[in-house]
Amino acid sequence: MTMQLHYFPTLNAHKVTIALEEMGLAYEVVMVDILGDEQFRPEFIAINPNGRIPALVDDDVTMFESAAILQYLDRNPENGGGLDLFPALAAWHARIAARPAVQRALAVGPVTEDMRARWLKKD
Ligand SMILES: N[C@@H](CCC(=O)N[C@@H](CS)C(=O)NCC(=O)O)C(=O)O
Helix (H, G, I), strand (E, B), or coil: what is residue 117? Predict the structure, then answer.
């Protein structure tokens, strides 16, 4: 199914249309009249609980936040590598993933909880 961009002519939404056009991707515009409060309609809130455009629906992927949408489009493997809008991001993501707080958050799960429970019983 063609991607749907939930849109109103503002800069945040327009930068997504620029990227879509530059990448040559097919998309449909779904107008959300934010001056008429359409961003608060339940059907749009289901797409973006923040009630703000832009938002992108790509089959089962729903995205909001223009910077996140740009990254999604740029990294979509079906998009031939995109425009490489964020060349420095790979290293940045790797550095974030290596942070102790992120490691701790990623490590939480049933197995670690079980280990922790057994470790606590030792005291
Ligand atoms: N950080 C968000 C900002 C989104 C945003 O502020 N959208 C505005 C239009 S540019 C909006 O939908 N405003 C409606 C409202 O505040 O009710 C992004 O970059 O996508």
Answer: helix
Least Cα distance to 76 among 68, 36, 116, 52 occurs for 68
Q: Give the closest residue (by CA) to ligand 1 atom 6.
A: 52
The pTM of this model reads 0.74
Q: Delineate the domains of the chain, giving CATH numbers in brackets.
A: 3-79 (3.40.30.10), 89-121 (no CATH)
Which atom of ligand 1 approaches the CA of 52 most closely?
Answer: 12
Block mean pLDDT (10 aa), the chain, length 123: 96 93 92 97 97 96 92 76 69 73 64 68 69
